Amino acid sequence: QVQLVESGGGLVQAGGSLRLSCAASGRTFSTLGWFRQAPGKDREFVSGITYSGLITRYGDSVKGRFTISRDIAKNTVYLQMNSLKPEDTAVYFCAARRVVGAVVSITTYEYEYAYWGQGTQVTVSS
Question: Quick check: 109 and 58 in contact, CB under 8 A?
Fold first, then answer.
């Protein structure tokens, strides 16, 4: 049984930090990533990382502020969010993808991720 369980969301003031975790189980994945969705907005790619951790990718809006990492032994991915802004307020979803063959890039398209967590709320106040 495949499961992705997020944690670490909460309320933080602008300029503060949060660290999200996503614990995956049931199998390993080629790519683990994060998407977010604010009310009335489309789901947005935030960051992704390959199994080895050798390739990472960030959305333009978070580049330089967020850092993705993973623990292979725990099959867990993390998102360290620094310098948070009110516009970062959203539900953050963990997503996983598995493909045959080598992964040479990280896709930003949500339809290419087959597995999803339940989401964790991040709220950044002014």
Answer: no
